[in-house]
Design a protein that fits this description.
With 166 residues, the chain is of the alpha+beta class. It is 27% helix and 28% strand. The structure holds zinc ion. Zinc ion is lined by residues 84, 86-87, 89, 116-117, 119-120.
Length: 166
């Protein structure tokens, strides 16, 4: 079943819905099409509709922003876009690296862990970032709940990722 990315009236991404649900929102004029597949059309009632990929709600829906996102391997890799934060590879199996090593008192929390490939993780070992000359490309931070969950679901789709990252 195809899914469709829903943006709030403010263009903030809020969820994925089924194609069927998206069509209902469009037919009721509660949403408008932002991105559609050019090569496909949908037949709906008496008219035809563009095949939606991203839609935007016409009126603003309040969304809770302060969910506490648990730190897990999956949510961390999603935050870091499945990319080693030291060398930038996406091709190798990724591990979780403690920026300040655990042996030096570094904690397992959002601001101290990054995705790292096996060889970077090994190279960095128990060294501090400055001693290893390995500084994460993006300063690790606690991510917004919605963005991370949506990015996980948007994996492999550049159109969706473009709307979720901004
Ligand atoms: Zn690496």
């Amino acid at each position: 079943m195809s899914k469709v990315l829903v943006l709030n009236a403010t263009y903030e991404p809020i969820s994925f819905v089924t194609l069927k649900r998206a069509v209902i929102l469009l037919l009721k004029e509660k949403a408008e099409v932002i991105e559609a597949l050019v090569e496909r059309q949908l037949r709906a009632e008496r008219s035809s509709l563009p095949y939606p990929v991203v839609i935007r709600l016409v009126s603003y829906v309040p969304v809770p922003r302060f969910f506490n996102l648990p730190l897990s391997r999956r949510s961390l890799l999603s935050r870091d876009n499945y990319t080693c934060q030291y060398c930038g590879t996406t091709e190798h199996p990724l591990t979780i690296d403690h920026v300040i090593p655990r042996s030096r008192g570094g904690k397992t929390e959002w601001t101290n862990v990054v995705a790292a490939c096996v060889s970077c993780n090994r190279k960095k070992g128990n060294k501090m970032p400055a001693d290893a000359h390995m500084i994460p490309r993006t300063k690790p931070a606690k991510p917004g709940y919605i963005a991370v969950v949506l990015l996980g679901q948007a994996k492999g789709n550049e159109t969706w990722q473009r709307y979720i990252r901004t």
